[in-house]
Amino acid sequence: MSQVQKQLERRRTFAIISHPDAGKTTITEKLLLFGGAIKQAGAVKSRKTERHATSDWMKMEQERGISVTSSVMQFHYRDRVVNLLDTPGHADFSEDTYRTLTAVDSALMVIDCAKGVEERTIKLMDVCRMRQTPIFTFINKLDREGREPIELLDEVEEVLGIECAPVTWPIGMGKRLRGVYHLLDDAVHLYEPGKNYVTQDAEIIEGLDNPLLDERLGGDVAEFRDEIELVRGASHEFDAEAYLAGKQTPVFFGSAINNFGVTPLLDAFVKHAPAPRAHATTTREVACDESKLTGFVFKIQANMDPAHRDRVAFMRVCSGRFEQGMKMHHVRLGKDIRIANALTFLAQDRDSVEEAWPGDIIGLHNHGTIAIGDSFTEGESLQFTGIPNFAPELFRVARLRDPLKLKALQKGLQQLSEEGATQFFRPMLGNDLVLGAVGMLQFDVVAYRLKHEYNVDATFEAVNVQTARWVRCKDEKMLRDFTNQLSNNLALDAAEQLVYLAPTRVNLQLTTERWPDITFSPTRETV
Ligand code: G4P
């Protein structure tokens, strides 16, 4: 077995999808704790606070109580190397989340047992379904009164369209929570309130018929055994193949804050979650065990360390081995660059990595030459596909208080659009700069960052655009005619691609009918 094969088979790269408040931060912290990446509970939260306190523009997210940034955390568990890609929970930053989901091999869905399937989860599951991402499910907050477990599973099946296979099953809930039963291991993990905050040291009783259970559960034991019989008969059995195909999700119950039920989840996760797989490019499929390095950039983030004011491009390694100091080929620019100081994101600290393997994420220092969707290789000219740019649904035109700042405004908007903070269009006629976003909050973030990072005071005003479509046509003459006739509605995006800005949906419909040979695309893959 080659070294690449050996390393990639250890890798598990995933993201957590959930509605805000379901417990994503808490469970992240517990996973890092088990993985030895942090020493004490509370570290992830305090990291959040520290960042807020030191970074200017993130003060805004603190005020609004949301997390704008994403980061990457690596930890070891058993013989696996686990990469957890954090995603912002707030709906306004969904573009960023969607792109992060292109860089993972599986996902963990966290659901609040009192609230069930919520709106953000539905949207994120749609993205996972498009890519057939395998999903683990954790139903959280079992220490509080919630809905009946069977009802929760029905809801997941019905609303999210995925088959559920319970792996653990709760014994009681809220004040009556006694533990969980592991259906595959035939073992009961007992719950003792207050005992499991830091490590899960629950007592485990092997076998449903074990007389110890009668002792521990007392009068409730018969009812509990009956329930398990019923669950076994009525629910789907875990099927590893169906899980890997994205058709079935194994379901675990627990309480993240009490560190309860997390160990069975993590044990099963490192056993069954998929290792890195092949990735499509415009020319061929890249197998992950190829010896030459390839990777793509799915995210750019600014000011992670305000002292440096740097921008970091996150690259997912798809094949081969990355080594500090090696030369990589920047396919879009057709240039070789030497990478001397790539970053990894181990819990709180950014350490230099010496090497990285398929499934790992590395951070490249970026001075404006790397954009989302860029591919890197050891020389081959290939472009990874499938990293989407979504058509914005909200538009504003930028207005300057000081007209002399036009250059700084253009530079700021160009850079912020490369990071995916906003999309930026230059209409073919006139000098306006139009911004596009998926959520309103993006405009506030851009205004704030323009002021604090580029010293530009800009306001954003309403503009007569309702939706945008990327325009393509194989027939050059037809494209020229189209461009000449409709220049009023056409613009170039930050990557110089032609975009049709439609004032109304009716207008868009009429235009597409009038120009049947032109493709109007609601997403642009950043290739
Ligand atoms: P998020 O990242 O998905 O938004 O959720 P987060 O982990 O921040 O959790 C949201 C709230 O739910 C937090 O409470 C957290 O303590 C609580 N929580 C998480 N897991 C459990 C659990 O298993 N049981 C119970 N009862 N609560 C849980 P908060 O009051 O908003 O924040 P904090 O003051 O606790 O930090």
Automatic annotation (TrEMBL):
It is found in: Cytoplasm. The keyword Methyltransferase does not apply. GO terms for molecular function: GTP binding; GTPase activity; guanosine tetraphosphate binding; translation release factor activity, codon nonspecific; translation release factor activity, codon specific. NCBIfam families: prfC, PRK00741.1, small_GTP. GO terms for cellular component: cytosol. It comes from Marinihelvus fidelis. This is Peptide chain release factor 3. InterPro entries: EF-G-like_DII, EFG_III/V, G_TR_CS, P-loop_NTPase, PrfC, RF3_C, RF3_dom_3_sf, RF3_GTP-bd. Gene3D superfamilies: P-loop containing nucleotide triphosphate hydrolases (3.40.50.300), Peptide chain release factor 3, domain III (3.30.70.3280). Increases the formation of ribosomal termination complexes and stimulates activities of RF-1 and RF-2. It binds guanine nucleotides and has strong preference for UGA stop codons. It may interact directly with the ribosome. The stimulation of RF-1 and RF-2 is significantly reduced by GTP and GDP, but not by GMP. Keywords: Cytoplasm, GTP-binding, Nucleotide-binding, Protein biosynthesis. Residues 9-277 form the Tr-type G domain. It comes from the Bacteria. Signal peptide: none annotated. GTP binds at residues 18-25, 86-90, 140-143. The keyword Acyltransferase does not apply. Its main location: cytoplasm. Belongs to the TRAFAC class translation factor GTPase superfamily. Classic translation factor GTPase family. PrfC subfamily. The gene is prfC. One of its GO terms (biological process) is regulation of translational termination.
